[in-house]
Amino acid sequence: MNKLNFPDPWLEALGKAFCVEFLEDMEKKLYAFRAENITIFPPPNDIFKALDLVNFGSVKILILGQDPYHGFDQANGLSFSVNDGISIPPSLKNIFVELNNDLNIPIPNHGNLTAWATQGVLLLNSALTVELAKPNSHQSLGWDKLTNKIISQLSNRGGVIFVLWGNFAQKKEGLIDRNRNSILCASHPSPLSAYRGFFGCNHFGLINKLLQKNKSDEINWNLG
Question: Which residue is catalytic, options 8, 46, 52, 67?
């Protein structure tokens, strides 16, 4: 069943029967791409990395992205994040600029966000795979069935800070119970829209204030 290396701790939270059916279907779809020698990112072992690093009960914040980066060696299974040694993409550069303006945290020289994930930040993309040089190519593949379920179940659990940057992410707002969770919205950090409300949103400081209010440990955003 678990050829895709789906993390076992999430099976109970999402429902084992649901996961079995979904993963079998997705494995067939991805196998068909591989049979045609279509290059897909991230590598198979990184597809569920966001869930590997944060179990269901430990999620404090969910930062929702659209789909993985579509160039070689970029995607590492975490939204907005890239592997060590890879040039920092424009949207992530703007995230770091806002972080610096908000909390005076130095802009790092790498774009690997694993350190955030290990503190309870679920860096989830809506689609978990993409084809080489084809952004959004797997948005209709069916990943949203899984990722919408993750958002809904976390909403039902409550106490999560959902961070929705851009119109695409904000379309998921209807899946979230505002009475049990917090929602932070801003424009997307892309250079095309960052000046329309992302810069100056102060989300990183707001997140830590909300965590403090909930008597939870703040996030150390410094990637050093």
Answer: 67
